Fold:
Amino acid sequence: MSTIAVNAITDANSGNTTTINSVTPNVHNTVGKNLVINGAMQIDQRNATTTALGYTLDRFYLFRSSNHDQHAFSVVQDTDAPDGFSNSLKYTTTTAETTVDADELLYLRQRIEATNLQQLAYGTTSAKKVTLSFWVKSSVTGTFAVSLYQQDGMKNLSKTYTINSANTWEKKTITYIGNTSNAIIDDTGIGIQIDWILSAGSDYTSTDSSSAWTAYGSGESFAYGHGTNAVATTLNATWQLTGVQLEVGESATEFEHRPYGTELLLCQRYYNFYEGDNYSCVYSTSNCFTILDLPAEMRATPTVGYSDRRSGASNYYFSSYNYPRRVQLLSAGITNGYVTDVTLDSEL
Amino acid sequence: MYKLQPNDPIKNEPAKEIVRLSDNAHIPFDEANKDYQEYLEWLAEGNTPEPADG
Structure:
């Protein structure tokens, strides 16, 4: 075995910008560099066609203001993806909005937990730049806004990208300056929210937030620069996304492909699904428990949902006993119960 | 709309959750939970949950 022992590897021209396979190694483009979860759109625990505002594929939320007049949509996991990816998130307009009014807004978002963003050093003079890269494909060409929103401080920074060719996968890269004024409080709440604007009325585009972190106010700067609302106003318009990466620094490095199991575990901090009948064990002459192990510690005590329960069982109660390693669902009035298709939701 | 839960039948303590009637979701009293945050906002608007059964 040979060993290379040197003090530094420098670029042939000068400096320390040597590249390996076109990537400049630094402390940030190592394992874990991607601050986005499920960027390759592999995880879809809800496995549903989303037609109302809410979570779609894991960690991605479709927001639509309630004041739309005609608009309807669907969001699904799709196998159409650029080379190197197997899935994308696909949005389709199923009923077109005739006109996007000033106060109407439609966007896809991912919220990143604050405790995972402390490395950005926001609120200090050392606040770091971040670079967002993603693959996008749409039947609509034009200029779209992508906004970063910071919960602590309530500010946003809106940049744009252009879809040049309809129905063609295009890779986009956008760099955002750091926020030197407002720290991201180290907690389990919302740190930064990435917002891909699909349509926005003039109430959300009137204040320039393209070069500085800008007070959110009533949202005037939220979608600044967004240029086309045709995704919402065109029947069967599509918009697809995959390969999403947010990383520290001024350049986009190659997408970090994490193992499926690792990505699923990251998602399970926010949502878990226990398919089928989950049987209970007897606790007393009239009560029983269903115990569900958690693959990952959840962000917060989860909201519990289920599709069905055994006849005679009362509503299941959430019990904090043994949380956060597992949750315990208690049912009164029956000793041999079950609860079906349980969901645990602690999304941001 | 929300509904209160009866006492925990084993511990005989007040339930630590509220039920959202639109989807029957059980929402824990955890201020970090976004559904509970929405419930608190709903209460702050002057609304009142339905009483518990029994």
In short: The mean pLDDT of chain B is 90. The CA atoms of residues 36 and 54 of chain B lie 24 Å apart.
